[in-house]
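Course assignment 3, question 2. Fill in each field.
Student: A.L.
Task: Predict the tertiary structure for the chain below.
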Amino acid sequence: MTTIRNFALAVVAALVFTAASAGPTKVAILGLEKNAYEAWKSKDAKFWSTFLSDKFVGWGSLGRLDKASATKEYTGADCEIKSYALSDEQVSPLGKDAVLITHKATVDGTCGGQKIPAKRWAASVYVRDGGKWKGAFHAQAAIVDPKAAPAAPVDTQEAPNEGDTQPKHRDARTDAMLAVERAVWEAWRVHDSKKIADLTAKDISFINIFGVHLATKADALKDWSGDYCDVKRVSITDAAGTMLSPTVGILTHKATADGTCYGQRVGPVWGTSVYVKHGDVWKWTFGINLPARQ
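Answer field:
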């Protein structure tokens, strides 16, 4: 009887270990994302202290966020959210300890007395942290008609200092990701889809400044090789690297593109790219770009 009991306990322990070691299901990640929206709606300040990873980085109304500034922004008293709904969810593993979710969000509410754009594409990254899955990144891009509205509400005070070529928080891994980032932007500028294909992972997705979600590598390469953008020069500055694991990193930065897309001048951009390491090479696997605002 003792042998049977010990065997049963061993089986239970193995199952628990396997569950802890395996990546989360799409349902579980979507549940975490909905919890975050509900906490935003209810202004639950306590929620974020355990929900967000200490490594959290993102973009908010005034720029780059860390855990403390994100907690303040997500519980801001000037936002009144009546309802929200998520759809078109896409979950992608980033190794065994991180996962990306993209989705469309429909929100009815105001912030600062101004109506929030009802439709947007959002992205979050979750990381395994102390046995729990915690938020490591979040940003949202409003869905707009690129032919009907400027690409970005340009504020010259928010434009990157183009003379500042030395990014902040430099280390070897940040430098490596930044080198790839600059190469990706330059390949986009000249519509070199082959070069972009070589610089990116097998599975990629992207959300651009107009809130357009490109769900696959084929979609992205087709879009980036198009001629709707005419850009003479690109510049990447103020880059910061956040390492989620030895093989997964997030690069946040500011970018400028001297040119137009859909006939509209491209303003300064707050950019985020997720990188995965293949052997000794960092590959771009996801990005979201937002119009920089004051």
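Instructor remarks: The CA atoms of residues 275 and 284 lie 5 Å apart. Residues 2-21 form the longest helix (20 residues).
Grade: pending
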